[in-house]
Write a structure and sequence with these properties.
By secondary structure, the protein is of the alpha+beta class. The chain is built from ten helices and 40 strands. The longest helix is centred in the C-terminal third of the chain and has 29 residues. Its main location: membrane.
Length: 818
């Protein structure tokens, strides 16, 4: 128990603080651009492609072409399923909502040519289109098996690299045949070593390889139970399959584990990857690197936690160049493969002609696709951690390498959640500094959808200028749910809500800076950085006038105190919705105002809170306890409950202690009991009366006694057959040999009966072959003694009329209560 307590305390200290946002935001109707598609049913939107200033969105029976900045619908495509396919889908047991054509894959083959695939009522189909005269023209239609999923709820990823389409999906109706496919190559079919019930997340091309990210059942964990691991797999672009039976199989498929965990002696893992963004090239840690970002969660039945981790491409490549993992036997451990067992050329290495690879290499990579090492997280820990059901991460979009007026570079993260929120966060340590540390800052929390709506897709879109450059001032965040699409600005630098330089800098938002000329907090323009004041790292700028706003950097004074939030700064909970009539906690006129619903939350005592405009309404509550306090309280409560339970059990046992005489023997031999017909329960509550010798119940165990008047056969082999003593044939009456009444005293015992006489007479029996005359049993009143009474007994021996054949029994005076 003490070890468990120490483990919890270690986790608590290693756990990142649940950082609170600087600002809570709920939008008014005029600022948030929304697109709802067909309001009569759920479209199940899926962002398929972004082409310059347009968004290509797959939906139910339709492809939407939307303008990214305004979400205006342009000319799209309608693709319905034939009636006979719908009827067949219904006959297979699917419901009517599933038996439609959900468009799930779009790839641009060349300028003006696209390939579009859909579920087509659980019979996947694909089409090639050409854009001519302002409209799409159908070129051909063909089977989409291996390109599009059957079920619209299945996760699928696809990427077009060098004119080839790479897809991760399932290839059968039941979803039991997952694969990574590029015509005509695929992964091994029904082989858990290659694909073990994967959920695909993303894919991208990099260098000589194409990478796939997914989560799957961990085959190396099977001997310990069942667990989900995050994976990254790769294949070579030049892979053309192998000879003979490897003709339609990948010869370079490898996969490894992504490690997103809280470090320590017992790491806490976030095992289930949910989304990915990148790769992004930039200056990280003082060097040029390529980074990918991903969101991870714990299992749904575990401690609810989410995290954002970053990975360097060079670390990923190092894992694939490292050792392989294998299991020597069915019940053996998974261990690293010795380097001398790895054949040449090395399995997984890109070659000019994969069809010339030897069989030893092909057989090895088929049985050893898993790498031994895991890909470590960049900086050694998650960049952001959130706990609680309201902060379960789904998607992530990253705006990389944004440069601030002071020359620092930051990657701004936008993270979607299951309850319709978008979290905007940044690592306060600049990416281009040599210092490798994590200091997360949550700039704002935006309630985009209803709290019951999960965010399914996100992307950052910036308009392209006529010269082809990207406009940094026109960035929009595109957020998708199953039935709604929202476009919003990347920043909220409001001069009517943030009035001082200190408040503007304290936001630590790379997009916002204090304009010295206008004396306003505005969106930063990189044209004249000298005119702006900003400090993302500390939240304090020396050139700003004195203000009550203080830095959020931890100090000795406030490290142990939770951030202070004025009671007026957090409004009552409400649900964000595009329908104004659904709001019950606010006046409808307040929602119709053009001002954004923004609230700046102070995090230190004495900070001012401006509350002129409409207040935000979030479900954020003031935390009463820290994680450390909760862990210690739970552990202490467990220990107290353990000791209290032990003490209560001990006292109860002392009070209800059994008497030594309550132990009954097991009736595994021919024992005889005399039952005491009394009220035993009441007798035991009162003072127990001492039983007389004649009232004692006795039991006997058989012992070997020599036959009467018969010499022992010392030459016989083995032990004599044990049997109960019997009387001779001339017995006048029969009696119970275990009877202890005074009138039936044992014949060869003079005076009071000794119940243990048989034990004490063993030596006599063994040393003498015959009984003495005084030890002879009473037969027909011989020697002047009274004969035995003829009466029946009702013990285990029943009527003992034939008692006595040369074997005696041992008696015990043990009291027995029945």
């Amino acid at each position: 128990m003490l070890g468990l307590l120490l483990w919890f305390i270690g986790i608590a200290w290693g756990w990142q603080e649940n950082v609170r946002p600087k600002m809570y935001v709920q939008y008014g109707l005029d600022d948030m651009l929304r697109f709802q598609g067909n309001a009569s049913f759920v479209d199940h939107f899926r962002l398929l492609e972004t082409d310059r200033n347009w968004l290509l969105v797959g939906a139910r029976n339709k492809l939407y072409n939307l303008t990214a900045t305004t979400l205006q619908e342009n000319q799209g495509l309608d693709w319905f399923t034939a009636h006979e396919h719908v009827q067949m889908c219904l006959l297979k047991g699917r419901n009517e909502d599933e038996c439609h054509n959900y468009l799930r894959l779009l790839a641009i083959k060349s300028p003006g040519k696209i390939v579009l695939c859909g579920t087509h009522a659980f019979k996947p189909m694909c089409r090639d289109y050409s854009f001519k005269d302002g409209q799409y023209v159908l070129d051909k239609q063909y089977s989409g098996q291996g390109l599009s999923p059957y079920d619209p709820s299945h996760n699928t990823t696809a990427v077009m690299v060098d004119g080839d389409l790479y897809v991760g999906t399932v290839a059968d109706f039941s979803g039991a045949d997952p694969l990574i496919y590029r015509e005509p190559l695929r992964t091994e079919q029904y082989d858990a070593m290659h694909m073990s019930a994967p959920n695909f997340v993303s894919s991208f091309g990099h260098g000589e390889h194409v990478y796939f990210l997914f989560r799957e059942t961990a085959i190396e964990y099977m001997n310990c139970g069942k667990s989900i691991y995050s994976r990254i797999a790769r294949v070579c672009k030049q892979d053309r399959g192998g000879p003979h039976r490897f003709k339609f199989r990948w010869t370079t498929f490898l996969k490894g584990r992504l490690n997103c965990s809280i470090p320590g002696d017992f790491p806490f893992y976030f095992n289930e990857i949910q989304s990915m963004s990148g790769p992004f090239e930039g200056k990280y840690g003082g060097k040029r690197h390529e980074i990918i970002y991903a969101t991870f969660t714990t299992p749904s039945n575990s401690i609810i936690g989410s995290a954002v981790c970053a990975f360097r491409m060079e670390d990923i490549e190092a894992v694939f160049d490292g050792a392989f993992k294998e299991q020597a036997g069915l019940n053996a451990n998974w261990l690293s493969v010795p380097s001398q067992k790895v054949p040449e050329p090395r399995p997984g290495q890109c070659v000019n002609d994969s069809q010339t690879l030897p069989d030893i290499t092909l057989n090895f990579i088929k049985s050893h696709p898993l790498m031994d090492d895991s890909v470590p997280a960049y900086l050694g820990e998650p960049l952001l951690i959130k706990t609680g059901i309201h902060y379960r991460f789904t998607k992530i979009a990253v705006d990389p390498q944004f440069r601030t007026p002071d020359g620092k570079v930051f990657d701004v993260m936008f993270i979607g959640t299951y309850n319709g929120k978008v979290i905007k966060a940044v690592n306060a340590e600049s990416t281009d500094t040599a210092t490798k540390s994590v200091r997360p800052v949550i700039i704002e929390e935006i309630q985009v959808f209803s709290q019951k709506v999960a965010i399914t897709h996100m992307t950052i879109h910036r308009r392209r200028n006529p010269d082809g450059t990207i406009s940094m001032e026109s960035g929009r965040l595109i957020v998708m749910a199953d039935d709604e699409i929202v476009s919003l600005k990347l920043q909220r630098c409001y001069t009517d809500k943030i009035r001082t330089c200190s408040e503007c800098v304290a936001l630590q938002d790379p997009y916002c800076a204090w304009d010295k000329r206008k004396s306003k907090c505005v969106s930063y323009n990189s044209a004249q950085p000298i005119a702006y004041l900003q400090s993302v790292q500390t939240g304090v700028h020396p050139s700003c006038p004195d203000s009550k706003v203080q830095s959020r950097l931890p100090s000795k004074d406030n490290a142990n105190h939770p951030p202070f939030v004025p009671s007026s700064s957090v409004a009552e909970p409400s649900i964000v919705s595009h329908d104004v009539k659904k709001s019950s906690n606010r006046n409808a006129k307040e929602f119709m105002r053009n001002d954004d619903m923004v609230k700046v939350i102070s995090h230190n005592h004495g900070r001012e809170s401006y509350d002129d405009g409409p207040r935000i309404s979030g479900d954020e509550s003031i935390p009463l306890y820290t994680v450390e306090t909760l862990v210690i309280a739970v552990a202490a409560g467990s220990l107290v409950a353990l000791f209290v339970g032990f003490g209560a059990g001990y006292c109860c046992g002392k009070k209800c202690k059994k008497d030594e005489e309550d132990n009954l023997p097991y009736p595994d031999t021919e024992y005889e009991y005399f039952e005491q017909r009394q009220n035993c329960a009441r007798a035991r509550l009162a003072q127990e009366q001492k039983l007389l010798q004649s009232d004692e119940a006795t039991y006997a165990e058989p012992i070997l006694v020599p036959a009467l008047n018969k010499p022992l056969n010392t030459n016989s082999r083995g032990s004599p057959k044990p049997q109960i003593r019997k009387l001779t044939n001339n017995v006048i009456g029969s009696t119970n040999v275990f009877d202890s009444s005074p009138n039936n005293a044992f014949p060869f015992a003079e005076g009071p009966r000794d119940p243990y006489a048989s034990f004490r007479s063993r030596d006599t029996f063994s040393s003498s072959a015959r009984f003495t005359p005084q030890q002879q049993p009473l037969i027909n009143g011989v020697n002047g003694h009274t004969p035995l009474d003829d009466r029946d007994t009702f013990g285990t021996l029943r009527n003992n009329k034939n008692i006595g054949d040369g074997f005696g029994t041992a008696r015990s005076g043990k009291k027995v209560y029945l």
